[in-house]
Amino acid sequence: MTFVKTRLLIEKMAAGETAEIHLVGEEPLENVPASVQELGHIVLSLEPVDNSGDADSNIVHRLKIKKS
After folding, report:
1. What is the pTM of this model?
2. C-alpha 31, offset from chain centre
3. How far is residue 43 from each of residues 13, 33, 52, 53, measured CA to CA in Å?
4. Domains in the chain with CATH codes
């Protein structure tokens, strides 16, 4: 589901625009960056978000992309 939302966001973006997506869980972390690249867009960064104060949640990663 995360990739579907990401793809809809990309479709609304102009070429050269950047976006930040938060990925929660392992499935989106593995699939979304690869799928974005397969569509021909650029992954600028992928890094964990510091959510150390919330021990019950999954680790969140911040994905920054640029539309080609």
Report:
1. 0.88
2. 9
3. 15, 7, 25, 28
4. 2-66 (3.30.110)
Amino acid at the residue 1? M
Residue 63 has phi, psi (to 5 degrees) of -110, 125
Helix (H) or strand (E) holding 62: strand 60-66
Q: Which ranges constitute the DSSP H helices of the chain?
A: 2-12, 26-38
Cα gap 21→5, rounded to integer Å: 10
pLDDT in tens, 14-44: 999 999 999 999 999 999 999 999 999 999 9
Q: What's at 14, amino acid-wise?
A: A
**Digit-coded pLDDT (tens) for 36-53:** 999 999 999 999 997 766
Q: What's the CA gap between 53 and 43, in Å, rounded? A: 28
